[in-house]
Design a protein that fits this description.
alpha/beta; single chain; 14 strands; Rossmann fold; 2 domains; 5-stranded mixed beta sheet; 7-stranded mixed beta sheet
Length: 327
């Protein structure tokens, strides 16, 4: 039976399903047990599964990362929460130096089936270190999967897939859309595929590539552009490492035009990496230069000024119209 739920409820539902199906799934993080997490992603799970499987940790991200690596090499499947992406940096030492390398280091004898969850991105008028979008840092690391859902259904299916994956996964949740809408999600335990893009809207004139919270603005822009006679194909990348380049190349080869949208800063962003691959492998299909609509190369501003930083529907429409006008 399907219920209309928010993304944060879908995360909670997936965690409960994973813990029910597999007794080796362990949750750990700051305030996740007694308080149910800063965004209430784990509310009710302590009562359901007990304090041996839902563990409050000290405010120590380095320790959380180390515990997750240790647990995962010893047969458990830890799901660790970092309260905000801005606080993930201390845990990167363990993720980069150990989790991402463990399979290669031990020649396959050990692996790290861990998930590190973190809310990320702006849009909730938060203070410093609470609105970062630095997914490129993680996506650069070989052996470390980076997964970003953009709807309740994809949050449910992708989180289940991440927990069941035998490699370490950084699972970034766009908090701006945690409670933005409700969609039908069936608690059937079925995972969605990792390493695969999702085509959310088919179109023939231009390809719009995006992920995370800006998927919502991109879909709205595509709807408004359709009223102007421009047919947009919208692709949610979903997994940033490794990227499903085949889906992106097939779409751009067909439409001949592309705009890439992401919230992270422009310089060195994943949009640049995608654009480079498209230029290398689909150059002769392109009818116009690839454009990017991104955040700024600056620290995310505070509170209401976040809206100035974030890509808007109007920004996307303008980029598409300029791309379509190129001859």
């Amino acid at each position: 039976m399907s219920n209309a739920i928010t993304m944060i409820e879908a995360v909670n539902l997936a965690l409960a399903r994973a813990m029910t199906d597999d007794p080796d799934v362990i949750l750990l993080g700051e305030d996740i047990a007694t308080n149910g997490g800063v965004f209430r992603a784990t509310v009710g799970l302590l009562e359901q599964f007990g304090e041996r499987r839902v563990i409050d940790t000290p405010l120590a991200e380095t320790m959380i990362g180390g515990l997750a690596v240790g647990m995962s090499t010893q047969g458990l499947r830890p799901v660790a929460e970092i309260q905000f992406m801005g606080f993930i940096l201390p845990a990167l030492d363990h993720l980069i130096a150990h989790a991402a390398r463990m399979r290669n280091r031990t020649r396959g004898r050990l692996h790290c089936p861990l998930v590190l969850r973190a809310p990320f991105g702006g849009g909730i008028r938060a203070p410093e270190h609470h609105s970062e979008s630095t997914e490129t840092l993680m996506a650069h690391i070989p052996g470390l999967r980076v997964v970003i859902p953009s709807s309740p259904a994809r949050a449910y299916g992708l989180l289940l897939a991440a927990i069941r994956c035998n490699d370490p996964v950084v699972f970034l949740e766009p908090k701006r859309i945690y409670r933005a809408s409700k969609t039908l999600v069936e608690d059937n335990g079925q995972a969605l595929p990792l390493d695969t893009c999702f085509t959310l809207r088919e179109g023939g004139d231009i390809t719009l590539i995006c992920w995370g919270a800006v998927v919502q603005e991109t879909l709205e822009a595509a709807t408004r552009l359709a009223d102007k006679g421009i047919s947009c194909e919208v692709i949610d990348v979903a997994t940033l490492n490794p990227i499903d380049h085949d889906t992106l190349l097939a779409s751009v080869s067909r439409t001949g035009r592309c705009v890439i949208i992401h919230e992270a800063p422009r310089h060195g962003g994943m949009g640049a990496e995608i654009a480079a691959t498209l230029a290398e492998k689909a150059l002769l299909s392109l009818q116009a230069p690839i454009r990017r609509v991104t955040g700024y190369d600056a620290v995310m501003p505070y509170y209401r000024n976040e809206q100035i930083y974030l890509p808007s529907v109007e920004d996307i429409i303008s980029a598409v119209e300029q791309t379509m006008e190129f001859v």
